[in-house]
Amino acid sequence: MPRRKAFVLFELMNAMLYTAQEAKARGFDIVALNHNPLCAAGPFTVPDGLVDERVTIASWTDTPALDAVLKDLADRYDIVGTHSMFEPTLPHQAALRQLAGLPTTDPATLLRILDKTRVRATLHDAGLSALRGVPLDEALAWENWEFSRAAVLKPANGTGSALCFEVSTLAELRDTAERVRTADVVNPLMRDYIRAHGGFVLEEKAEGELLSVESVVHRGEVGFVTLTGRYVLAADPVVEQGMQTPYHHPRLAELVEKSRAVHECLGFHHGPTHLEFMVADDGTAELIDFNPRAAGFASPVSIGEAYGLDYASVLVDVGCGIAPDLGFTARPPRYAVEMVVLPPPGTTEFRTIEFPADSIAARATKSPGERLSGRADQLDAVGMFIVTAPTAAEAHRRGLAARQEVVVNGVRLGDNPHNTVAFSEHIGRELPAPAGPQS
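^ thats the sequence. predicted structure below, dont judge the formating
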């Protein structure tokens, strides 16, 4: 008897819902490997009947147990595709793709890409980065500050911008190192991933504008999808607060070329990617993070809203090893602004959140009663939403206005310090679009 064709999602959550629905529409069984429960509230609620089999994963760090799960799936199903958006799952996704004979970046290469210390050293040696990075233990042994600039302390294997801190002196470094040793990451999946791999890296800080290059790689061929501009917290630029899609930055062509070179240098072979760059005024672009997955938040929704398609169809094609059609990137776009909001200063518990009525994919990112740090921390984000408009200027204006109208625990956010964002001079401007798809 022929095995049923299955599309496997690793930790099904958020906008992965649409990828699962697209794969289901193609006639595939949907298998979800999840540690967390499937979403049961908000715009990403998983409807009854979508998932044909849910496999509970006790821990994404237990490789022997996971290998047994993957082998069992490969024995019982004809695995036709996979999708993942969460770093701890990516090497396991690659292992299943190998078992199924699907194109993939091999697990060993993915582990190297997920290690920020190794990525920085590789790019530096290849002449693709001028920044230096050292393990935290090595930096703590310094007698003097050995960098010529400020630096960012972050987990060597991190996710969601968790536990990232800017420091510029040995005293600040030692104080911050003590804080991160005792800091609690509220999200248990992020906490387990960071702790399982251990170690922090200190990297020289890149100056300039933060933005992202979204791509899909098919069997080694890098296809550019879009550029996204960023909103960051004015009081702490490490804290990301939103993005504009698309973003026709004046350095777009150079960024696409730099992105392609980084992919090739690191050996990424197949799948969606989300690369974060800092771009200086002179055009120098420094890679900040190579994420071997599609962009988070509800970016697939933003891309779909901007270009008038269900972007899940692209992600399913890539997941199934089918060359994606990126012709849509040549269409005149709408503009989508996705915003992330923090609670008012001093808030230590999340209770409720209300969004403007015309928001798209508006959702709470915390559960009622969930504790918060009271600080302006990336992991204290309590909600996200999208607005769109026919022009970049209008989308920008609507996004800024809408975030002020969000109500958290009965309090309108307004222009409190945790809700004041900074952005590039190019955000919200009508910049020339690229001539066609960037290969």
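The radius of gyration is 21 Å.
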